[in-house]
Amino acid sequence: MKEFFALAPAEQIARMHQLARGALSRWPGRFAEPELIKYRENAVYSVRDDRGARFALRIHRFAYHSDAALLSELQWMAALREAGLAVPGVIPARDGALMVKVRVPEVPEPLQVDMLGWLGGRPVGSVEAGIAGAPDEVAALYRQVGRLAAELHAHAASWQRPAGFVRHAWTAEGILGDRPLWGDFRALPELAPHRALIDRACAQMERELLEFGRSADRFGLIHADFVPENLLWGDGRVMLIDFDDAGYGWHMFELATALYFHFGRPSFGIVRDALAAGYRSVRPLPNEQWRHLGLFLLLRSLTYLGWVQTRSETETARAMTPHFVSTTVDLAGAYLAER
């Protein structure tokens, strides 16, 4: 796929469109022309069938997840939906498969494709702009976000995983180890002037995480991407999309992700307190865990540095790197100052 990704973005999109058109024949019904919604990690299309029903067709990035890992993601989503959580439904293909492999001449490798039910609503905000609204509106919104996170964790704690279920793990090794899941933040040139600070913080975090542990009251399946773009507001409720990063991890890592892009904004305290209150209305969140929020915010920040380091050629990475570096340095300094 190296040759494919060397193509200009417009040419990649044109070729992906052909794959999307070919993939639709694998699902029952007749569909209108697919409309590209997003092309970043995955290519996501809006499609409508001849009855007017709307769906999301996802073409997954080559070799990002194994077939078993993607199937596991979809199985968990289907179980959450069946349990009544506000997540997309999974639409089986004609043969009943939750995921299919599709190949067309325009793309050199077969790619994984799935179809999800469309959730109406709008994102509650964006990474760049944050969220808008009066303080009481923001608080009410994030109380719902906290409840949704707690419901998801409660479901994961009791759900019997299917045979062959496999997902990656957001552990100390997966974030701070030699081969982090999202790339090596240490290799980011812009971080070089701050390496001594970051190395001290990483050493302290490894010790603290070992003590914190991975017992079932604090560690399990998580969504791992509760960012504003993945939280939709519609029909008076918050809905959750994009389980691409879902895996095993600390519940506090989940909550830190929900808070991360509010850090440094005037709304941070409101969002933080509302998120915790909403979570605690569904399942326990002891102060013994919550007091480690600074640790998990810093862990989350390091993953974003790894993300931009492995995508340094993209416009998004170039635009976000200064923000991620400055936020990481601020979080590391605050984290060490508290120890």
Describe this structure in words.
The protein has 339 residues and is α+β, with helices and mostly antiparallel strands. It has two domains: 117 residues, Phosphorylase Kinase, domain 1 (2-Layer Sandwich); 215 residues, Aminoglycoside 3'-phosphotransferase, Chain: A, domain 2. It is 44% helix and 14% strand. Strands 1-2-3-5-4 form a five-stranded antiparallel beta sheet, with helices on one face. Strands 6-9-10 form a three-stranded antiparallel beta sheet, with helices on one face. A hairpin with a 2-residue loop joins strand 9 and strand 10. The radius of gyration is 20 Å and the shape is globular. The model has no long low-confidence stretch (mean pLDDT 96). Keywords: Transferase. It holds the Pfam family APH. One of its GO terms (molecular function) is homoserine kinase activity.
Give the SSE layout.
Blueprint: H1 2-5, H2 9-23, E1 35-39, E2 43-48, E3 54-59, H3 67-82, E4 100-102, E5 111-117, E6 122-123, H4 135-158, E7 169-170, H5 172-176, H6 195-212, E8 219-222, E9 231-234, E10 237-240, E11 247-250, H7 251-260, H8 268-280, H9 287-290, H10 293-309, H11 315-337
Helix pairs in contact: 4-7, 4-8, 6-11, 7-10, 10-11
